[in-house]
Amino acid sequence: MKRVATILILFLVVSSLTAQMKHALRDTDGRHVIGRGFVVVTNNSFFDSDDYTRMARMGANHQVVRLELGKLSDFPGAKLDTNYLSKLDTLVQLGSQVGIKTIFKMTTYGIKGFSWERFWKNEDNMHETYLSAWAAIWERFKDEKNVIGYDLINEPRKLTMEISYTDLTEQYLIPLYQRLIDESQEINSRKYCLIQSIFMNKGEKINGNQYAEITSSIHRDQLLFAPHIYQENRNLIKPTLLRFEKESSILEAPIFIGEWGFPTFDVTDSTMTGTLGQLNYMDFYIRTAELFDSLGMNTIKAWFSGNPHKQNFLPGGPSTWAIFQDENAVGTIERKYITDIIARPYPQTIAGDIQSFKYDFATRSLDLNIKSDNRLGTSQVFIGANRHYPDGFSVVVNDSMILSYDPLKTTGLEIKLSDDTSNPEDFRWDSNKQQLIVLKWPVDQTDIHLRIVPGIYN
Hints:
The chain is of the alpha/beta class. It has 2 domains: 312 residues, TIM Barrel, CATH 3.20.20.80; 103 residues, Immunoglobulin-like (Sandwich). The strands form 4 sheets. Strands 8-7-6-5-4-3-12-10-9 form a 9-stranded parallel beta sheet. Strands 1-2-14-17-22-21 form a 6-stranded antiparallel beta sheet, with no helix packed on it. A 6-stranded antiparallel beta sheet has the order 15-16-23-18-19-20. Strand 1 and strand 2 form a beta hairpin. Helix 7 runs parallel beside helix 8 and helix 8 packs parallel to helix 9. The longest helix has 23 residues. The protein is globular and about 70 Å long.
């Protein structure tokens, strides 16, 4: 009996230590944040405020802007393009106007004949040139509070180098990361530095994922681990995410999934069944989303764009990562079989600690458990009523207050039930951003269960 009691105490201690979702971020006010959003490409795309409103209405509170090294560096054939920098300014400001934070990600696009083998060996001082390209970004946005971090090397590769992935990581990748991080944090130590592992050669994978493992710490602060996962095999999704969890612990860095979502094929847009059909996509996308949320991971979907250029990089015909069907760089025609899953309800910013949340696709219900802290300010919960609750929804808080939203009316949230501890006026509906705004939790410094359910409470 004594042994059982000891085991129970240990379980309770471990549970209390892990109750708070460890991958959730903290904003400058100390609020708990789950990051979600899209990769934004900068070539051949000209976004405006409507596009960013559309992005926010899909639940985005972060964007990862994909940088082109060819427009930021002195590599052969490249140069620093001031017009390109101005374009980046615009993307940051468009995002900030709708509550979207920005992370920049460096790619090697625009550099003809870029050689990873020469890069790792630092031939012709390539590291200095690469660092200088980043420095232009770090200096420009050092005081921009809506730029929160930098994904330092996108999909670094081994290719023909005669070296193991482990040795390449420990002898070349980590030392370069350390140098980049130190230089970045010398300019602003509050910005996050995002890191990826080596992108493995074609045909080499671990549990179906083409990224090598990180087995050593980088020994730096303000890190986010930003792996990619493009997985259509539902049986391999969980093993991959649990592997990421292990690497996250080694790095002592929360997980911020930098890209996810298996590409769709042209045929998928017009086919419901089969391996390339929409029903199959919905199945493994839902499975991926549920696992992300159970682990509290931040996730970025590629890409917020149309697909003007057809690609044949997989068996099955032309395919793309774009979320819009338009044959333009900027799109509006959603691939709803994936966007309705991407844009699922979730807690965006919480004054307090997020302990757990789950959106149940079958019942269209969101369960959110938090510990409130009203000193931190307001909270936002993305609901996406326009796509998930055309029949209206109800907000249930600790079974002591119930509010309903009727899409046939313009009265906002209606009070259906309220006790002496509740103040319904603290709960507002923002139809433009599809958010539930909580000005103040009804009870402070305590556990709160919030539930969003379909329909109007009667």
